[in-house]
Write a structure and sequence with these properties.
Bound molecules: adenosine-3'-5'-diphosphate, magnesium ion
Radius of gyration: 20 Å
Number of strands: 14
Distance between the termini: 69 Å
Structural class: alpha+beta
CATH class of one domain: Alpha Beta
CATH topology of one domain: D-Maltodextrin-Binding Protein, domain 2
CATH architecture of one domain: 3-Layer(aba) Sandwich
Order of helices and strands: HHEEHEHHEHEEEEEEHEHEHEEH
Shape: globular
Length: 348
C-alpha cells in the first residue's frame, strides 16, 4: 500500500510548474496554487483508481469552487495539463478532461469522523513556504475508526542529511525526503527520488532525539509569525533552559525532521480563534509518534482525529520525546498561566 503511494506522488514535477504559476487567494485570504490543486487531483484520482473495492472517503484541504468561476479557465487548463503530463509519464493512457480534474479535486469532500476509513490529504502543506521556495510537504494519512494508522510525508526540499548541522556539507545538497509510518511498525525515511544515498540506500528506520537534558535541545516552530505565537515559545524555551535559537521552518517537514532527531521539540501555538485542521497534522503525527515522540495539546491530551475536519484541542500542539515531555508540559502550562495573567508590579 505505502509502496504505490511512494511511486505515484512525484512532487518535484509539480514544483517546476509551480514556479511559473500564478498564486491564487482563497476566501480566507490564504494562498493556493496550481500545485495544491494538481497534487490533490492526482492523489485523489490515483487513490480512487487503486482502491476500487473499498468504499472511498477522502478528507482533503482544497475544493473546486473557485476553479469553476469563469475567470479561472486558464488556471484550470494548467492544472489539467500538469495532471495529464504526470499521468502520461506514469504510463497512464487516459487523458482527463477539465471536468474530470474538478471531479477528482471534489472527491476530497468527505467530513471524516469516528467511523470507518478515511484518507486525509494536505496536497501541499506549507503553501507559503512553497511559494517562497522554502520547505513544504505532501501529507497523506489514513484514519481507521478515528485513529491515524498510516502516514506518508513527502518533503521535496528537505536535505537527506540532518538540518541540525549548520556546516553546509556536500550531503546538504541532496534534498528530497520521504517519511512513512504504519501503526506499530516504526517510521522509515528514504530519498524521495528513489536514488541511493550513502546514509539511506533504500529506507532507514528513524528515531527521535534521545536528549534528556532540555538545555541541549533545539526546537522547531513555524516560519510564519501568523501561524504561531513566538513570544510563548520563547518563554517556554527560557523556562527549559534551551540555549539554541528556534529553528523556523514551514510545513509538516518539521514532523519529518523531528522524527529523525534533527531537533528535539516542536511548539505550535496558533493565535486565538484559529482551529487546527486534521490534514495539517495527521501524517506528521504518526510519522513522529512511530519514531518515538509524544504529541499532545497544552493540557497533555493526545490529538483526536475522530471529530471531523477540525482538531478539537486545548491551546496548541507540542511534540517531544517521552523523557522530555513532563518537563515540557510543565514549562508550557506555566508559560500559558503567566501569559494569561502577567505578574503585576509592586503597588505604589
Ligand atoms: N492563523 C493560523 N494559525 C495556525 N495555522 C494556520 C493559520 N493559518 C493557516 N494555518 C495553517 O498552517 C499551515 C502551515 O503550517 P506551518 O506554519 O507549519 O507551515 C497551513 O497549511 P497549508 O499551507 O496547507 O494551507 C494552514 O493550514
Ligand atoms: Mg492552505
Ligand atoms: Mg496544511
Ligand atoms: Mg495545504
Amino acid at each position: 500500500m505505502v509502496e504505490w503511494v511512494h511511486t505515484r506522488i512525484h512532487p518535484k514535477k509539480v514544483q517546476k510548474v509551480l514556479l511559473q504559476s500564478d498564486v491564487q487567494s482563497k476566501s480566507d485570504k490564504s494562498p493556493v496554487t496550481v500545485a495544491d490543486y494538481g497534487s490533490q487531483a492526482l492523489v485523489s484520482y490515483i487513490l480512487e483508481k487503486e482502491l476500487p473495492s473499498e468504499s472511498f472517503s477522502l478528507v482533503a484541504e482544497e475544493d473546486s469552487g473557485d476553479l469553476r468561476n469563469d475567470g479561472s479557465q486558464e488556471v484550470l487548463q494548467r492544472i489539467r495539463e500538469l495532471m495529464n503530463d504526470t499521468l502520461a509519464s506514469d504510463g497512464e493512457n487516459k487523458v482527463l478532461s477539465a471536468e474530470d480534474v474538478l471531479t477528482a479535486i471534489d472527491s476530497g469532500k468527505s467530513e471524516g469522523g469516528p467511523l470507518g476509513r478515511h484518507w486525509v490529504l494536505d496536497p501541499i502543506d506549507g503553501t507559503k513556504g512553497f511559494v517562497r521556495g522554502h520547505q513544504y510537504a505532501i501529507a497523506l494519512a489514513l484514519l481507521d475508526e478515528g485513529k491515524v494508522v498510516l502516514g506518508v510525508l513527502g518533503c521535496p526540499n528537505l536535505p537527506l542529511a540532518s538540518i541540525a548541522n549548520t556546516d553546509q556539507s556536500s550531503s546538504q545538497n541532496q534534498v528530497g525526503c520521504l517519511f512513512y509510518a504504519t501503526i506499530g511498525s516504526g517510521t522509515y525515511m528514504q530519498s524521495l527520488d528513489g536514488s541511493s544515498h550513502k546514509k539511506s540506500p533504500v529506507a532507514i528506520q528513524v528515531h527521535v532525539s534521545a536528549i534528556e537534558n532540555p538545555a541541549e535541545a533545539s526546537f522547531f516552530e513555524s516560519f510564519e509569525a501568523a501561524h504561531t505565537t513566538f513570544s510563548l515559545s520563547g518563554s517556554i524555551a527560557t523556562k527549559l533552559g534551551v540555549k539554541a535559537p528556534p529553528v523556523r521552518i514551514d510545513s509538516q517537514a518539521k514532523y519529518g525532521a523531528l522524527s529523525r532527531g534533527d531537533g528535539a521539540i516542536y511548539l505550535r501555538f496558533p493565535h486565538k480563534g484559529y482551529r487546527e485542521k486534521i490534514w495539517d497534522h495527521a501524517a506528521g503525527c504518526i510519522v513522529v509518534t512511530e519514531a518515538g515522540a509524544v504529541v499532545s495539546d497544552a493540557a497533555g491530551k493526545p490529538l483526536d482525529f475522530s471529530k471531523g475536519k477540525f482538531l478539537d484541542l486545548d491551546t496548541g500542539i507540542i511534540v517531544t520525546n517521552q523523557k522530555l515531555m513532563p518537563l515540557l508540559l510543565k514549562a508550557v502550562q506555566d508559560s500559558l498561566r503567566e501569559a494569561s495573567s502577567p505578574p503585576t508590579g509592586p503597588s505604589l
